[in-house]
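Researcher: Quick one. two chains, 746 residues in total.
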Amino acid sequence: MSLSLSRRRWLWAYAFIAIPLLFFLLIRIGPTLYAFWVSFHDWDPIALDRPWVGLKNYQDIANDKVFWKALRNTGVYVLVGVPLGLGISLVIALGLQRLIRFAGLFRALYFLPYVTSLVAVGWVWRWIYMPNGVLNDVLGWFGINGTSWLGDPATAIYAIIVTTVWHGLGFQVVIFLAGLESIPTDYMDAAAVDGATSWQTFKDIVIPQLNPTIVFLVVTGVISNLQVFTQVRSMSSQGTGGPLNSTISIVLYVYQKAFASLPSKMGYASAMTVVLFLIILFITIVQLRVLQRDTD
Amino acid sequence: MKKSVTEQAIDRRTALKFGAAGAAAFGAARHLGAIAQDATPETTGDFGLGDLTVSGDVEIEYWQYEYASKTDLVNEFIPEFEAANPGIKIKHVNFPYEDFIQQVAAAVQAGEGPDVLNVYFGWIPAYVQQQFLVPLDPELFPHDVIESEFFPMISAGKVVDDYYALPTAVRTLALFCNMDHLDAAGVAPPTTWDELLAAAKATAVKNGNDFEVVGFTHDMAGQGHNWWREALIRQAGGMPSTEDNRTLQWTSAEGIEAFNYVTSFLMDSEITQSGFQTDGPTAFGSGMAALHIDGSYRVGTYKSSAPDLNYKIVPLPENKDKASFASFWCNTITRNAAEGDKAIAAAKWIDFLASADVMKRWTPAVGELPARSALAEDPSLLEDDKVAPFIESLPYSYATFMVNEAELRQAVLDAFDNVTLAGLDPEVAVQEAQDKVQAQLDEYWSSLED
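Model:
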């Protein structure tokens, strides 16, 4: 049987796609589905038997105060962290776009934190935040009495959010700059000719034109904040999401139950990841529906 | 070369346990017994297992986390042990400390993993519950010998009627005193509760609202929680739990008295501050804390990180009684080596690692303390005035029986945070922590009885 040229091309294309697809299935989708399976068991990797417990892990989650605390904290990471990050990075991007001299240097400076390891960043910020640290020294010049930022349940989570925002700024600025530069200059010129104020230009041209960029940054920002882990682990007291669980996130709690304590409660931890997965899925779908609109 | 066993009892037991081949090997030259024990080379341990032999070549995997001075020393020991025990090969596997629980779990789930595991004592009860560890054979390691030759803390490695572990070395807590600050304030290293509080007050230096020197480190997440549980409650005349490890007594009058003693430091804004220099060991190491409670391993850290620090170490200040907290890493046999030649090889290897000769070489190289009581009086070990106070504390140092180490610690930390940060009543906070941990203990014991 001979194949037509176009059909042969198709086959080759699929053959090439098949390899990464297989890899993706085995490395990402497989373990994800396996976690669903594990979540229905009392699963301890070392124990000799891992009995099926049905929905018991999910029922336990519903009654676990720490899980709800982690869920609420994760909400704070998202609802405070994402808008704050987007707002600041948009302002910086608008400023950087106007720079003509040393534009590259400034962009590099803002991008630098993003390429630094989050663990190292976390430790440096711990030193900044400690009661006898730089931040309180600076506040002292203005007669303000600082606190132990990471040691106080009222401030610890916001201290971590500030670090997260600072770390992610470079990435968001670069994406915003790309978005800004793709706005056709005709639009701006036309607005200028029509006598639009700069606020009107910003509100009616820049923001709508940036919509795809904003959608992308919101969706990725929300997902990464829902999965916040490293900075909480390296900045909170002894890495356990303290004090008094005021900074614990869902992923950190999952990690503690599965990997950082004995006996390891892998089934319980898997059930929490399934819940988190469903939350992320739901939020992402809603976001794409609400935020995505056509611009004309 | 096949040698005999010294006691018939062992022979009977091994026939049951190691199968016919092993028993035949042991029985081959039983008449040599008594002589063989004297002729035992130094590298075979102190439990008299020198005569147990394997029936063929066997390799066992020994797992221990990465810690340069420990792994280097074990690498030195292995050829000596192998030379003295023909047929036995040790494969030494190391992995990062942070990944300990995951590494072991992943390997076991994949059907592999260690034959002999070096494990933190606080994890033994959980591993026993999972049937991951096998008990030390009482014929080979008689309980009365373990109890008379090792320090009392070793009971933390006992579950119901069985011992599961032998340590090479242990650690205790003592008080670190920065002599520059103590001298400046004109106080001597404190020896009682009252003196400690007074010394902490006298040595703290403030500039306005800011500390330049804290009198005492605020370090509950470091060693503070252990200090309260095992040292202070006992020093107040109480017991953190009943002898059988089944019922906590944190809410006893002594427990609350000890708890309030700790918070009297933490809540006094003239003594210390939470998070100062990020944590206690860093604050003391940078010379910005006068008094600090820590383990013996910290001496080695400061030797390299703060060589000019002028400090002295004294045993923990006492009250009605003396007491300190002990912790240790110890060697256990897993179910992978439950039977046959592997069981013999594993027993000999942990016997060797818990021998007095190994301990004598371990303390100077690693900085941990010997686990055998006879060595506590060894003059060569007491020469170092930074190590001596820790050794002195050994006879009255206690390790906690814990079924979930991470969650026990968290419960205690939350109790202190609830009082110092959230203003909760101490009795309510301690009760809450005790209820949480007691529930886990109850669940644990009932699971073992099933």
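The longest helix of chain B spans residues 426-449.
Researcher: Thanks, that's what I needed.
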